[in-house]
TrEMBL record:
Subcellular location: Nucleus
Biological processes, Gene Ontology terms: negative regulation of calcineurin-NFAT signaling cascade; negative regulation of transcription by RNA polymerase II
Main subcellular localisation: nucleus
Entry superkingdom: Eukaryota
Any one GO cellular component localisation term in the record: nucleus
PROSITE patterns associated with the record: LIM_DOMAIN_1, LIM_DOMAIN_2
One Pfam family named in its UniProt record: LIM
Classification lineage: Eukaryota, Metazoa, Chordata, Craniata, Vertebrata
Designated name of the protein: Four and a half LIM domains 2
Keyword terms of this UniProt record: LIM domain, Metal-binding, Nucleus, Repeat, Zinc, Zinc-finger
Record-level Gene Ontology MF annotations: transcription coregulator activity; zinc ion binding
LIM zinc-binding domain boundaries: 77-137, 138-199, 200-258
Length: 302
């Protein structure tokens, strides 16, 4: 039977490698301390602790100033790796609502930095592509090499292939997601399979890819094996032949069968039907018995 090889169930056929992004803060840290105008009398205090920000660094959040200590206590995220707050002067790297210091964002296995690099997640752990491939990636059934994350792979009956390795055995062209037919542990695209293995219908000369019937040791499509007279399909129906041409019973009887001298209906002679020839006339067995009975009655009545 033909199969269809589906891509591995990742988005767009690719492993879902997350993209590194940096937290965007709705605040800006002023590198210089705030110095009031000598003519100003208005205070400039931390929005939370109310301490003066005179001569200190501060951070604006939603247009409200905070001292660095209050801002970090209120709004800083905790690093997944070291469990320490990610300060206002540090980069906050995030993935799926989890946060890291830039120096803490590394591969769980080899400890190499993942900053600005592709990575994969497995059981809550982040892995570089090399470590992920060595531990979890499939091996190509054809070239035996690792199928790297982020590359398209094809799967069929528990085996995996690189997209470029999943090819037709005959024409050597990639099969992709097109229909194919496996035979003797090899995969064939449908056109190549038909050319190499499929029987040819004796009527239309085209390949028989499924079903079909055999008559006189020759293959036919079901739709090609029809009555010579009425052209109705004969597959699954009783039929007979004359001069090597197939006929349904109705057409054969109408065209070739002798008529019963008793009932005038055709005598098919098929399926073991008995008939009698008498005085150059043919009779159904039952019709002839009835004829004899009538004839005998007439003789006895005289």
């Amino acid at each position: 039977m033909a199969g269809r090889c589906a891509p591995h169930p990742f988005v767009n056929g690719r492993d879902p490698l997350p993209l590194l992004r940096e937290v965007t803060l709705a605040a800006r840290c002023c590198s210089n301390s705030w110095t009031p105008d000598t003519n100003m009398t208005e205070r400039f205090d931390c929005h939370y602790c109310k301490e003066s920000l005179f001569g200190k660094k501060y951070i604006l959040r939603e247009d409200s100033p905070y001292c660095v200590k209050c801002y970090e206590n209120l709004y800083s995220n905790t690093c997944e790796e070291c469990k320490k707050p990610i300060g206002a002067d540090c980069k906050d790297l995030s993935y799926k609502d989890r946060h890291w210091h830039e120096t803490c964002f590394h591969c769980f296995q080899c400890k190499n930095s993942l900053v600005d690099k592709p990575f994969a997640a497995k059981e809550e752990h982040l892995l570089c592509t090399d470590c992920y491939s060595n531990e979890y990636s499939s091996k190509c059934n054809e070239c035996k090499k690792t199928i790297m994350p982020g590359t398209r792979k094809m799967e069929y009956k528990g085996n995996s292939w690189h997209e470029t390795c999943f090819i037709c055995y005959r024409c050597q062209q990639p099969i992709g997601t097109k229909s194919f037919i496996p035979k003797d542990n090899q995969n064939f695209c449908v056109p190549c399979y038909e050319k190499q293995f499929a029987m040819q219908c004796v009527q239309c000369k085209k390949a028989i890819t499924s079903g079909g019937v055999t008559y006189r040791e020759q293959p036919w499509h079901k739709e090609c094996f029809v009555c010579t007279g009425c052209k109705k399909q004969l597959s699954g129906q009783r039929f007979t032949s004359r001069d090597e041409f197939a006929y349904c019973l109705s057409c054969f009887c109408n065209l070739y069968a002798k008529k019963c001298a008793g009932c005038t209906n055709p005598i098919s002679g098929l399926g073991g039907t008995k008939y009698i020839s008498f005085e150059e006339r043919q009779w159904h067995n039952d019709c002839f018995n009835l004829f004899q009975f009538k004839h005998l009655s007439e003789v006895m009545s005289k």
